[in-house]
Amino acid sequence: MRRSSTSAAALDQRPPADTRLWLTVNKLVPYLWQYKWRVLLALSCLLAAKLATVAVPLVFKDIIDGLNTAQQALSLPVLLLLLYGALRFSGALFTELREILFARVTQRAVRRISLEVFRHLHELSLRFHLHRETGGVSRDIERGSRSISNLISYTLYSILPTLIEIGLVLAILFARYDSVFVLIALASLTIYVVFTVKVSNWRISIRRKVNETDSAANTRAIDSLINYETVKYFNNEEYEAGRYDQRMREWEDAATRSRVSLSWLNLGQQLSIALGVTAMMWRAASGVVDGSMTIGDLVLVNAFLIQLYMPLNFLGVVYREIRQALTDIERMFDLLAVSREVADAPTAVELAAGPVFIRFSEVDFSYEANRQILHAVDFSVPAGGTVAVVGESGSGKSTLARLLYRFYDIGSGHILVNGTDLRQLTQASLRAAIGIVPQDTVLFNDSIYYNIQYGRPDASREEVLAAAAAAQLSRFVEQLPDGYETRVGERGLKLSGGEKQRVAIARALLKNPPVLIFDEATSALDSKTEKAIQASLDNAARGRTTLVIAHRLSTIMNADEILVMDAGRIVERGSHPELLQAAGLYAQMWTLQQQEEALVVAT
CA-to-CA distance for 218 and 248, rounded, in angstroms? Predict the structure, then answer.
């Protein structure tokens, strides 16, 4: 996945792999501690369950020894059998109680962390989102959220009960039998753990490669599907399938290596367990033969071996899962590590309600260090006034809107809003005061009504319908079978360009802000609809501070001032009559457009 330079810098500063586990756990603790009483009760149930589980073989041993007598039928330890059943049930009972108590804790932590990542992504700069790949990011979040749940579960109440159970078993073996049993157990434990850690650490790079190729394949698939029409235009279905398959082949190779290496890990773990079990059973059988141990002792040791090595085997699985989960959520936490390029100043203040006066003062700006976009741009938009900006493509017109919205911070100069540098205003209050109709309208895959109401989610239905009527949209919608509940499709692709623009205009009008920005707001409309909507836009702009970025000069003839930009500089300014009289670049553009319109009418 491609990352911005900010993201790359953040990745370079990541701690070593061995410490990232503890950093992750430390990050999760505050989310879990919100339910500290649930956590403590769950841990108490965990301890009770393990005590009951370890007590079962002890009772079973007494039952076996009690049956191994001449009067076995008469001396059947009924109470021991009842105790055996009670302990069996208690182990399951306390285990399930632990799960019930901890379920809310785990799911709430996943929810809060996922929400934090979601909010953080919306707080990142436009530069980050222009570099990101949607498919890869969505896959990272999906996989990370799932792995957080696994990581919490395994770390907090899978490893701990396993260690408790191993500790209890070793203590009982040491107290009741020869220390050789403990030495054999500790030796096999050490071999098992060292082998598991070494091989699992080696597998991390393989797992990371699986994730990278999986995200890359998903990104390529989503990018192709989003551009479905373009694929069809050029008959490139097989070409796209080939590009996707290339990524899938890389994923196949990485996934195969991961699966094979996992099998070798499992074999090594089972070998260490088999050697330990064989040695301990040989020692126990020898004890029975020489009379130092009973049949019940042999059964007890066997039961303890099962209880010792089953959780040990599970511990190996848990360790592998934790390492894999950590690798899976690594990308998700990488997203949280990306710093916000545009952030509110500590002393930022709210923009006061009321009329808004805007001033660009000697503004320089560049998207990339070696390519400057704006050069000493200086102009004002008086409160309630309308300023239009025209120029060739790439002259920097739309950049003015992005800077006013503070999608980027300027290189030098000032952008003043009511006399205050916008960097000293909170972004939320600044953007709440601005409504925009962008050149490239993108809609949510929801209903027309939802997309209009998005401009002000608390607006009433009457207000939504009034905004639609003002945008000349109501007649079109009323002809649809589902009316305003008609779904617009992914990115609004079910609507034409003109219909999407009218929805965008209605959305901006519904927001009812003191500042309006029209960025080629009617570029996708036919001449008849444009003239009808232009009157509505003029009416909506009345009394508001309005910045109009236009290509069709006929739409901005009534602007208070028109700025002509060329190569990032304002080369002409004045009213429509003044600019025509100056016979400069604006006059040339006007003449050319008039000739084009006359040619269209003639044909």
Answer: 9
Decide if 332 contacts 381 (C-beta within 8 A): no
DSSP one-letter string for 16-58: PHHHHHHHHHHHHHHHHHTTHHHHHHHHHHHHHHHHHHHHHHH
353, 425 Cβ separation under 8 angstroms: no
Strands, sheet with 515-519, edge to edge from the N-terminal-most edge strand: 434-437, 515-519, 545-549, 386-391, 561-566, 569-574
- Which pLDDT belongs to residue 11? 42
Which residues 6+ apart lie within 8 Å of 349 measured at CB? 420, 424, 425, 426
Q: Collect all residues with Cβ–Cβ distance below 8 Å to 293 and sequence separation of at least 6.
A: 177, 284, 287, 301
Residue with tokens 């699992």: 200
Residue type, 11: L
Q: How far apart are CA 518 and CA 546, in angstroms?
A: 8
Q: Check if 5-337 and 356-433+542-603 are the same fold.
A: no
Domain ranges of the chain: 5-337, 356-433+542-603
Q: How far apart are CA 559 and CA 564, in angstroms?
A: 13
- The CATH number of 356-433+542-603 is 3.40.50.300
Cβ-based burial of 282 (10 A; exposed 0-12, middle 13-18, buried ≥19): exposed
Task: Give the contacts of 339 (CB within 8 A, at least 6 positions apart).
Answer: 6, 10
* Residues β-bridged to residue 461: none
Could you give the CA distance from residue 211 to residue 320 in angstroms, rounded to a whole number? 15
CATH topology of domain 5-337: ABC transporter transmembrane region fold (1.20.1560)
Distance CA 38, CA 102 (A): 7
Averaged in consecutive runs of 10 residues, what is the pLDDT profile of the chain (603 residues)? Answer: 40 53 67 76 81 73 62 54 73 79 78 79 68 62 75 72 78 78 82 83 80 83 78 80 89 89 84 82 79 74 72 68 73 71 82 88 85 88 90 83 87 89 88 84 85 88 88 85 84 78 86 86 67 71 85 83 89 89 88 76 61
What are the structure tokens assigned to 7, written together?
Answer: 């993201």
pTM comes to 0.63
